[in-house]
Design brief:
The complex is a heterodimer. Chain A is mostly helical. Chain A has helices spanning 8-26, 31-50, 53-57, 66-82, 87-114, 120-141, 171-174, 187-203, 207-217, 219-224, 229-255, 268-277, 287-310, 315-342; strands at residues 161-163, 177-180, 183-186, 257-259. In chain A, helix 2 packs antiparallel against helix 11, helix 4 runs antiparallel to helix 5 (87-114) and helix 4 (66-82) crosses helix 11 (229-255). Chain A is globular and about 60 Å long. Chain B is globular and about 70 Å long. The mean pLDDT of chain B is 84.
Amino acid sequence: MTHDRIRTPQIIIIIFLVILLIMAYILHMDLVVLFNESLIKLVMNGVLALALIPMLNVGAGMNFGLPVGIVGGLVGLCIAVNFRLTGFPGFFASLLFSLIICVVFGWLYGLLLNRVKGREEIAGTFIGFSIIPLMNYFWTLAPFQNRQMLYPIGGQGLRPKIGLDPYFYNVLDNFCMIKISGFEIPLGLLAFYGLLCLFLYLFFRTKVGRAIIATGENEAFSRLSGIDISKIRLIAIILSTVFAGIGICVYSQSYGFIQLYDEPLSMAFPAISAVLIGGSTGRRTWIFEAVLGTYLLQTIYLLTVPIANEILIPELTEILRTFITYSIILYALLYRDRRRIVY
Amino acid sequence: MRYKILAEKLFNMENLVPTVFLLLSFFAWQFSGLSGTFVLNQVITRFIRDGILVLSLIIPVVAGMGLNFAIIVGAMTMQTALLFVINYQLAGLPGILLVFFLGIILAVISGFAIGHVLNRVKGKEMIVTIIIGFLANSIYQLVFLVGFGTFIPVANEEIILSRGIGVRNAVDLGMYRNTIDKFWLIKLGGIEIPLFMILVVLLFAGIISYLLHTRFGQEVKAVGSSHEKAEIAGINVNALRIKVIIISTVLAALGQLAYLQNIGMFDVYTAHMNTDIISCAALLAGGASIKSANIRHAIVGIFLFHTLFIVSPQAGQNLFHNAALGEYFRSFVAYGTIAFALIISTKYEKK
């Protein structure tokens, strides 16, 4: 197993994190509050990172088409809000609606990706990009009834930002919250995340899960052993899309708003770089790598905000975020393909 | 049998995509209610504005490297040169010449670097170029939004934000606006034809066409069809691919210069955004695929794609009473054309 070897990007990221922590300490920031927030950020973005694992394991590369699943989840959220469902029933109803829609979306997306074997990443990028304007039609024309979701004037078309405050804002975040001398541990949220991780872990131990891993490791060999490659790839892609849908539901309930229109366009990139920071090389990926990577990346994001404000250039946060995200993806693309040539 | 061949000829990919675009633009134009003269004027403006950028994509496609989304880097190098020259307040001809040469030098350097990177990821160039574009964009923002006023000395206070750090969002290029476009402006009825700029774009088309017919061009085609065969024929594949990317980046830099002087207003942080997507979509609209492209594809593509781009918001307004729907339609067309080309070409490869 090579997955426990620490490589250059991880070292750089950890050094960067330590520098940020020292800066935060010097600037007298409340580290306890930052720690509390980091746990919420982990789960908020962690499910989207988990969503990449099935496709990485089946050998279909990084899922740059994550927006396909994200818009599916957004439709689910909008339906739940449309019926004014509140609290846990509302949240779980949105998960259920997302699940159904994402299975359909994932199936179609999988059929497309099965036609572009070997070029899934670039095709996925553009399928993800093109579904955004298509869904913009849906957001504008779909007959939603809840006035709080619609534009105040005209009453047609959903707002770009729908507040979840009266519905299920933070239901999961505040569930079983334990407070010990300033520390706030969102136990319910972490348990939910743990359950999803456990589900994925158990899934990869089933027959189908093993077939997915086998296909990712050696496609020719698994075809010879009688595995239906197209079907297995389709299952992995659907699973990935469904997790993206669940991911955006968790994200939105934490964030407090459903963000529609062009917002999901670039959501795939931070999730991908999180998995890569965790140690994935763009092939077989372990759940632990996704969790660790998300925690490291989100903590860095969290720390850059107050520090950039302190030195009076607020834009620096966003620029640094994109810079870190894309340089990690680029590094991984270069590194992975080099390794492939070697063997 | 003859009919079958005829039908295949008519409905192969090279003609199908332009036909679809032609029909779509025709109907969108009908619904938009815009006058033909207006649309034609606009399309001619877009032709001289985006022409060189679209042409810069051709050679990498012929070399088998797919669509070079990293032309956005070329666009940014030219903008960098422009901002530095404006910062040191060099007006007039020396200023323009300095922008020109500085931009080309930067484009050559970055093209060289991109070429090296792409040699490590043969077969996956497109996804890498798109990430390079995003990464270059954040470096660009870092330099101009954070670097100016902190570690780059500011000589021209006018272009700096009031807090003293970072360049303003928009810099006026009034002194350069439409300087070249007004050369040899011919008016035919209501149609304005900036003959000089059209000739410039056609000159670049001619240069690319000539390049592809020289020995260099033959080598590029050989590399495009098979690396192994090219290697056997004694071509240094890696060096050639680097040259191809350098040419593409330099052409993109020049294209961006033509674009900026036509617009006359320089949106520092957004002028280069989506140039890669729009140029690629325009090339594909002309019937190119990610394996083959020529001058005709580029020129036909610019006309078809931009006609649709100009008329669709107005058509959306008239059809649905909502201009935004037309906007969504055109971004869908831009992304969708590229997605379609990727899906189709991989399918044909297998056969």
